[in-house]
Specification:
heterodimer; A: alpha/beta; Rhomboid-like fold; Aminopeptidase; eight-stranded mixed sheet; three-stranded antiparallel sheet; extended; disordered N terminus; B: alpha+beta; Immunoglobulin-like; 2 domains; eleven-stranded mixed sheet; five-stranded antiparallel sheet; 12 helices; elongated; signal (chain B)
Chain lengths: ~850, ~600
Amino acid sequence: MASSINPLSWLTASRARARALPLFTRAAVAGIVVFWIVGVQKALWDVRAWGALVPDEVGLTSLYRLNTFPFIHLNFFHAVMNILALTPLLERFETEYGTLTALALFFGPFATLPAFIYLFIEKFLLRGNTAVMGASIWVFLLLGIEAMKAYRANPSFKVGPYSIPTWTSPIGILLAMAALVPSSSFLGHLSGLVVGYLCGLGVLKFLAPPEKALRFVEGKLNLMGRLPHYISVDQKKYGRFGVLPSSSSPASAGISMGRGYSSLPAAAWELDGRWPMADGKQTCLTSDQTRLGPLNSGLLRLRRDPRILKVPPYLSLLCILVGVIWLFLLPLDDYSRRTYISENALLPGQVHTYFGGSDQNVFRAYKHETSALAGKTNIEINDGLETIIKGLGLKVSRQNFTYRSAGREYSGENLYAILQAPRGDATEAIVLVGAWENVKGEVNRNGIPLVLTLARYFKRWSLWSKDIIFLVTPDSITGPQAWVDAYHDAHDSARVSSLPLKSGALQGAIAIDYPQEERFESVHVVYDGVNGQLPNLDLINSVVSIAGGQMGMGVSIQEMWQHDDRYPDRLRTMLRGMLKQGLGLASGPHSSFIPYHVDAVTLQPYGVGWQDEMAMGRVIEGTFRSLNNLLEHLHQSFFFYLLMQRERFVSIGTYLPSAMLIAANFTIMAIFLWHQSQIGPPPNTPAVERQLFLPLGLVSLLQSLSVIPLSLFHHAPESALPPLFALFALINLALPPALSALLTARYRPSAQQYHLLQSFSLLLLGMFLSSLATLNFSLALLVGLLACPLSFVRPSRTAAGRVTCYLLLSAVAPTAVAVWVWGLGGWGRR
Amino acid sequence: MRQLLSFLLLLFVSLCRASSSPSSPDAPDYHEQLVLRPLPLSSLLASFNFRTNITLSAFEAHNFRYFPRSLAQILQHAGTRELHLRFSLGRWDAESWGARPWDGAREGGTGVELWAWLEADTDQEADQKWRTLTNALSGLFCASLNFIDGTRTTRPVTSFQPEGNLPNSKLANTHLLYGVLPHEVVCTENLTPFLKLLPCKGKAGIATLLDGHKLFDASWQSMAIDVRPVCPADGECVLQMEQTIDMVLDIERSKRPRDNPIPRPPPGHELKCDTSKSYHSDDTCFPAEYNADQDWSISQIFGRTMKGTCPLADPSVPSVCLQIPDSRSVYTSDGTTENKNPDKLSRCFDITPSSDFELWLPLPSSPSAPEVVTPDTPLLYAERSFTGHGQERGGMQTILRNPSPTSPVEFIYMESLPWFMRIYLHTIQARIEGNASVPSSSLIHEVYYRPAVDRARATQLEVRMRIPPRSTVFLTYDFEKSILRYTEYPPDANRGFDVAAAVITILGEGRKRYALRTTSLLCSLPTPDFSMPYNVIIFTSTAIALAFGGMFNILVRRFVAADEGPEMTLTTVKGRLAGLAARLRGGRA
């Protein structure tokens, strides 16, 4: 039966019902609303204190509470939820039993009985004094009645092999409410439900007022005639099912309510037991339009309103503005958070570090040894280091690698040693990297001796649960890359040799970049990975906590040598981080590890202070002790974050809306333009057919052309890169006018095709940017901001307009921006 | 009076002993021996061996004598003919330490390993007995052996041979089952029950040196229990139980006093420096070679001296042997006689039963003298690691190197992999380096493969290979990582899943076999985010969906009793059918 109802007809029926709520239901809802409005203030009359069902307050003089409490609600949300739940149930009850009965019952036993039950249990059994209020007690009461009814018609439903009696369903809801909704009164709901069940069973039938009396009252007062939406005693038995359409009616498919519906006296159609057919031939759509209430028709008018078409450009501008403002709000205290250690196993700074004392004598000796090697070839250096490390009793191995990139050949030999965990079994490992030269080409004068001294020191401890790998690479970018590629067998074995000696899964890596000769003041933590990937925030936090908290040295990030933790410095730090993330370059030996899900940072001592090499060694010792504590791979903390001070960050949930809003602006404009393309020129001629071929073809051609510069820049030798870039920038300048000239001359595109062209481009842009934002937020934001003008350009009629537009767009094109940045940087250096 | 009573008791006991000993006059029931072998890189291998014999008839008659009753009853109850149990920790550094003790026969992979020959008529019965055995041993040894379920049990075909003499009639209905727990951490709670099985319970004899602190600080240690029936050519079959503990101690680490175990940097003047360096001074010190030999004594290494000998042990077997060249001198406590063995590489000590025994090995007198016995070169080096990255696919690579310049080595490589690593058998390949004359295709002789069944059975792979002399073989295969069910992840899901060591059995001449195990591995599977917010979101969404669904259903659905809807009687059905037929007919016309 029910399944044959057209869904549309159901909708219309429910709308109809909403319009024709019976009298008592309206009164109850109005009562709740009034009490809520009164309850907004508390100074004049605290309605909640007055009317709630407080067990200790209920005396002979305050028995009114038994009746008032269902109307009074805690707050707006409470009231709205209860109205939403109560209205359909109460409406159903009223149409079934009549307004007078409902009035009598709900002001009488249905309010007081549950209240009495509640009072009895709460006050005398539990000896509590919890106040309850709200119409949810009625909701459960009515649910109980409904459930008993359903139980009679349909005793059980089947879930798999179990058959569950239908009357239990409100209990499930009751339990879910108690579990999920805070401060909901389980006992109050339960007492309502119990009364509901009793009523549904017919036990409480005696409470209902006698029909004769009702009829008498009704007749005497002529309630039917005087009150709108009144449900009479006589019509009540049809009240409930009177609105059901009959499936045998052929018109039920195109059911239409007709305009006359609301004006018909309710009894007339309900007694009939069928849907009134005002005009069976009307189509759904038109009947919908004619019948919809003022609100709906208002919405519809708005949809047709031409003014609404003016909104999208402003909306997309708003998106951009909000996105940018959002970004600038992030450094504020209210939007960023303090960092915290999420993985409790790390316990940073909780152990005493013992590196020092006579280890410094050893360090000096190793420094002499490595200083003697400075300036020699890679192989000679490795020979020298290998003898030292072998003397420590570690297993040493070497790896040759050759990379060809931009016409240059990067070759070298990595040296690495494995300190096997004394009682371990090669399942996990942590890496200590010391590059012979750092990114700037300075020799790691203190870093390499420190790695050697630490290797000797770590060997003495028996507490390592993971193998420790000491890796010395000739440079900071290609060497670590070759090593970590080979470790994960992702290398091209023709160029990069395999590792003869391996250990278990890498859990973390720390690189030392310590070329400074004099004593240092603070440690700079470099954490940017390639392609904008970041290490787990816990690793950075551990280093900060050990170096800053335990060792008492300064810690900085993003080359912010001075940081006063105020808004400008935070913003600067964040923007620097974003720029680096957006560019996605490797910033140190650690960068190559991050794509393999090995969390890594580089530590750079800087400044002139009183911290010596041993202090740096203790920082690394502490960090390794923390990593050694790890039971699981670092996974607890954030992988997507923006740091704005060493102890302040925003996580992806907070910053992502910014880039998403900017990406959304393109999508909004794309949809808008798609719609615009349908509408012809001013004398609105709707539903023009779209000519898709040219725009689609052109957009896909241009998008696919991007492969050419990509592969060119990828394969060109380094010396050819600047001229190639210049050439490409010139082409980039020349291509738009040339293309537009060609287009206008050859194809004479219509305004519609221009719209479509722009629509498709923006659609793609919005799509790419929003998916990119989840991976590399900064890059998406940068590209999005630079592309913003594209949303607002329109074909211009005047030549001057065209030239201005062209110049503006060219100025913010990525190639031009690169030139600008480079030029400004050069100027700034000078 | 009490003295008299105890004297009588002693007399009675000694009489009993006297009366029982003639039952096996020539087969001593129990003996124990400790072999100490200094290894290169200042390590020391200590092999403890305890052996108990019991005749099968006495065993059947429950007359256990030195054989531990607790274990014997388990063996009888589970119908076990032969049992091998291993608790291991750390890894054997074959590059430095050479061939393994006992030819690798007394060691297991990291964690706990158990294999046994059970007497059963059917596979089901064998499984049943295996479950009994693992559960009982789990209680006895305080290890999670009860987690060796169907998914961790395999039935190796070629890798294991019974060590004892099983009568052929019985061999037909014995079943070999093999289970391994790579994640099990071996610790003190496993040592205590182990010592309790000994007749002297660690109160006298070499077992007094077994201290949990030292044993589990070892670089490598393996505790083994082997029970096997041995039938000498003449005489009665005996059930032999051998308990073995092998450990490699780092001498420098072990010598650290127990009350000050932190390796603080020594004072500057105590550093051993290489004074030949030009820059050597008071504050600059290039440390001398790490592996310089060290002097040590038993009390330094083990933290205590040895308390005499076990009075129950066979006195004809020397308790302590030391394997060092004859040229080095050794000091021992009074009353000990030193017997140098004719091979000039080892010596044994006769110890007075009642007094403490101490042994001190000083530094070699001359720097040129050989410090330690050069270890034998192992027959095969094996190293196993994962290849690839990511959470979907992976690969396994085992590097097998035959160091021998002349003889090839033939062996069986066995893996028992968890079911969630689905291996692609077609990708298994062996690549040879160093010996071009042998084609790679001829390396693998035989493959026995039993695929895994999800959540029921582990993958079992046995490969028989032959590696020509002086060459290295890379055995590789790929696998896929399956996604586990939400409840199947352990609490430390992000740690990864342990993959048991591969067992390599080298086939020597005759029945001689050498065993070798690789290290275990950690396989990371795709892991959902088990964080608290994630769980909260999932649970609340589910609950709200359920609650809302129920509520919404009741609110909007109109329940109609059957009698209230339009009736569906036979006539209406007939009418409809008639109408349909009419329309069809009309359509055709």
